[in-house]
Amino acid sequence: MISVRAICVFLAIVTVGLADDVADYRKGESVYDFTVKDIQGNSVPLSKYKGHVLLIVNVASNCGLTEKNYEQLNQLYEKYGESQGLRILAFPSDQFNHQEPGTNEEIAEFAKKHNVKFDMFSKIEVNGENADPFYKYLKYKQPGNVENDDSIEWNFAKFIVDKDGQVVERHIPKKDPLDLIPSLEKYF
Q1: Which PROSITE patterns match (predicted)?
Q2: Is 8 a catalytic residue?
Q3: In the prediction, which pLDDT does 134 show?
């Protein structure tokens, strides 16, 4: 039988570990402090994007906003990717009405069919206890519009990161990517 002391020690270790996990994202000084997984599951240190303006978007294949957003994100990349160094990072998430039910392989195939020119990453959670630490960091740096809640509202919420890796703006899902041009141009 397990002793009460053993249970207490175990709970203390777990609690300290959880506290460290929750606090880790707050220790980041910039997005460059994070490593994420690309759509193939490879680790990608975000420091590879140093010196670039980033547009970070949570995406879903089966959302009513998908077609327009993918088209406009491609247009932004074509206009500013080479000339200004814009990088667009898309993170699939299935947290909104299960509009991204596919596997990473299926999501990659969908992106290929839509001629996606921007970088696709592995499917993650963007809200809740299991939210990816990188998304916790984004929301910590640019909280949402709802009082006391930094949650991502829906698919295609957008974050702008400047060339120094600082999260400088957050935009609602219904804001079209092309409407971000004045904001993006401030940071090139």
Answers
A1: GLUTATHIONE_PEROXID_1, GLUTATHIONE_PEROXID_3, THIOREDOXIN_2
A2: no
A3: 98
